[in-house]
Write a structure and sequence with these properties.
- By secondary structure, this protein is mainly alpha-helical.
- It has one domain (5-72).
- Helices cover 53% and strands 0% of the residues.
- The longest helix is centred in the middle third of the chain and has 19 residues, at 17-35.
- The two termini are 39 Å apart.
Length: 76
């Protein structure tokens, strides 16, 4: 996710080192609200858009790896 100028609004003046952390949290909170509201509110329409993006891929486990994982989880 890339933050933009709108996400960098309402920052505090940096007087001490901790103020940078506060500004980073403000930017992150603003960015999440402006760019991920659908995810944060539990909407699922974003999943369909994600499935058509270049970042999406389905991971398929081999039967051998699947069995190994299930056995480690005690579900075999």
């Amino acid at each position: 996710m890339r933050f933009d100028d709108d996400d960098r609004k309402n920052l505090i003046d940096v007087v001490k080192a901790g103020d940078n952390v506060i500004n980073d949290l403000i930017i992150t909170a603003n960015g999440l609200l402006s760019k991920c509201e659908d995810v944060l509110t539990g909407q699922k329409k974003w999943l369909e858009k994600y499935k058509t993006s270049s970042r999406y891929s389905e991971v398929k486990l081999s039967n051998e790896l699947n069995e190994l994982l299930l056995s480690k989880l005690g579900r075999h």
